[in-house]
Amino acid sequence: GAVVSQHPSRVICKSGTSVKIECRSLDFQATTMFWYRQFPKQSLMLMATSNEGSKATYEQGVEKDKFLINHASLTLSTLTVTSAHPEDSSFYICSARDYREEKLFFGSGTQLSVL
Amino acid sequence: DAKTTQPPSMDCAEGRAANLPCNHSTISGNEYVYWYRQIHSQGPQYIIHGLKNNETNEMASLIITEDRKSSTLILPHATLRDTAVYYCIVRVLPGGGADGLTFGKGTHLIIQP
After folding, report:
1. Is A33 on the interface with B (CB under 8 A)?
2. I need a surface site. Which of A52, A63, B83, B104 has the fewest CB within 10 A?
3. pLDDT per residue as tens digits for the range A47-106
4. Cβ-based neighbours of B112, under 8 Å, separated by 6 or more
5. Inter-chain CB proximity B95 and A108 less than 8 Å
6. What is the dihedral of CA A36, A37, A43, A46, to 10 degrees?
7. Is residue B42 within 8 angstroms of chain A, CB to CB?
8. Residue B105, SS3?
9. pLDDT digits over A6-28, tens only?
10. Which of A1, A46, A97 comes nearest B102 by C-beta?
């Protein structure tokens, strides 16, 4: 099946710094990618929908100025957590839709720890 | 999207068939049933999906009742590596349409040695 690569898998940063997470579709073009956040022992929560060449659509309660999303090409979307704080510590997961197949594929996730 | 109801946890002995139920009594005629699983600290993995016919692939079988109000995911010979949280998701369009999948709490399947 299609592969979605997410990098880095783990990042530790100081409070106030910014962190960029990359999500790549390796063998297909993804006009739409999705970003999720997952806190310990909870389910995945959709944060935003990333559309190639246009602005991302954010879910209610997600700060667009804090979680910057860029989808500049058909194979790459990035999520930047700006001025990270300890409460932003979470597991971030991206997914991409392969229009050739009737399903979404997910990256392996990024564990963000803000000290 | 139709809501789904799954048991929070299940145990299954290694080598036996694991049968995971899902209720989706408000499902619409054009909604598909998708199953994903998430192994600890990894991204979700697609397992199988179907509309109304039973489906089988190399990972599992999906049995959908005739009235489509419930379904069962069957892992025929469970191994320890099948321990994960299994999510049953109902969507209008295949692939999730323009919106991302909405995840419930899923079933935590624990395979016992």
Report:
1. no
2. A63
3. 999 888 888 999 999 999 999 999 888 899 999 999 999 999 999 999 998 777 777 899
4. B11, B12, B13, B14
5. no
6. -40
7. yes
8. coil
9. 999 999 999 999 999 999 999 88
10. A46
